[in-house]
Amino acid sequence: MVVGIDSETLAEVTAPLSLWSDIHATVVGNLLNANATVVAPDLLWELDPESVKTLGSGMETLTEKLAESELSMALHVNGGKVAVGAHLDNGRLNLPRESLQAMAGPNLALLNLNEDGDGAIRQYLLNVPVKQGETVFDWPSMSLVVSRLAGGPDHQTIPNSSRGSFWINYHGPAKSFPYLSAADVLRGELPDLTDKIVFYGPYDPRLGDLHRSPFSTGEPDMHGVEIHANAAHTLLSGSFLRQVSLPVQLIANLLLAWLVAVIFSLRSPLLGTLSTVVLSGVWWWWSAWSFANQGLWWDVSGSFMVLLLVAVACYVLRYVTVERSRKTAERLFGKYAPAQVVNQVLKDPSLAKLGGSQTVETTLWFCDINNFSTVSEKVTPAQLIDMVNEFFEEMAQIIHRHGGVIRQYVGDEIMVIFGAPSPLENHARAAMAMTVDAFRRLKELEKLAAGKPGFYEIKVGIHSGTVVCGNVGSSERMEYTAVGDDVNLASRVMGLNKQFETLALVSQETVDLTGDLPEGLELKSLGAHPVKGRENPVEIYEIKVH
């Protein structure tokens, strides 16, 4: 337990702290009278009673009182239950008076504490090397002396003692030990202290001696007397903290690295990242449990660094190999099939089979080049191929920008699906808006060509309806397509341009689904007309682009 010189004690004892020899002697005597097993004052006894006379005349009484207190303390120490403190200050050893030294003998202990780089005290020295003249002595620390007086373990059995120190297994944060004010002890108001080891020392912020422990979250909050008590508690309870051996730590880190690598190789990067986070949480929980229940300390930060580095390395490796290969496949096969279809098949290879049809509402967009034969007669075959490719390149960019899927190129004709294989909000309006952009872009290209041969005029047919989409063909070669009466009707609508001498036509079904017309687009009703394959005539509108 801890007996503290706290604010209550300072309020009752008004004398300067340097003249408290009689107070300290009384406290120690009362603790021994209450059957304390060991008393460990975190104090220095340096004051020479005779030096008080230098303060002026009339100090004889105080001098005698201090001398009696020193003698009383020496008698308490002589009983073999009191540790006496000393302090090493920049190589200078501050020792108690000769009478106390003689009585203390091997029970004279150093009170020094050693801070880590962050200011916290985690390790406690067993023996401190002290140089006196040409000789170096191993001076025991307070906790080691207290442990010996209480019949504790020999320091040779303490983990890490070969390095002259051990890790303090803190009993808890500040004020975790049973506590008693020194004011109560002075008044004799204290319980029976049989089997109690009592640490006595400053316990008020005004007296300083505050330190940071591993439990501290801000300013220093643990008094030195408590740290000595925690160190002695570690020694006497045998609850030593042990660090996992380097081979075991390496094996654990390698196992963690292997698990992360396996997860990343079998799962997607997202699942790999989530699994790494979960694995880190499990490892943190295990390390905390092991530390709290077994006193076993794992290098958690090192393990987390391994997890992070392996996860990053796996992610980069996956991107460089698997993801790059995937993107290459998308890019290459996207030239031969709709990119959305390729992407879906790469995500789920089981889709690459015949069938898999689904009935969806789409808008179908057909176009072919106007006056294709006339223009192609004026150029060489090589020039014709270049002109066709340039035309398709421009059209493809516009189609993809509006969410369309190029179903096929047939000669100079393009078939586009809006709304499949992936759903598209207001696919009819997307097809109409794409038509506006296509006509405007072709006009721009014609101006830029300045008379150079090219394809700058198209005929367009648009119709919305229900189609069946899926894979058709053979087991050796298949393609994604849309079939149904509405597909044929969209193609027929495009063919009506020749009859009406127009450039773009759209059916009533598409107009009804479009809603607000895109800017720059105007519709002119051409009435209902019969279409091959349909019993009832179809309402047709001409599209004019401004």
How would you describe this structure to a colleague?
The chain has 546 residues and is an alpha/beta fold. It has three domains: 2-240, no CATH class; 243-333, no CATH class; 353-545, Alpha-Beta Plaits (2-Layer Sandwich), CATH 3.30.70.1230. Helix content is 43%, strand content 23%. It has helices at 7-12, 21-33, 60-78, 98-104, 142-149, 182-186, 224-237, 246-266, 269-294, 300-333, 339-347, 372-376, 381-401, 427-449, 485-500, 508-514, and strands at residues 2-5, 38-41, 84-89, 92-94, 108-110, 123-125, 127-132, 135-140, 165-167, 179-181, 197-202, 210-211, 222-223, 242-243, 296-297, 355-369, 405-410, 413-418, 458-473, 478-483, 504-507, 521-529, 538-545. The strands form seven sheets. Strands 16, 17, 18, 19, 20, 21, 22 and 23 form an eight-stranded mixed beta sheet that branches. A four-stranded parallel beta sheet has the order 2-11-1-10, sandwiched between helices. The chain has a three-stranded mixed beta sheet with strand order 4-3-5. The radius of gyration is 46 Å and the shape is rod-shaped. The model has no long low-confidence stretch (mean pLDDT 84).
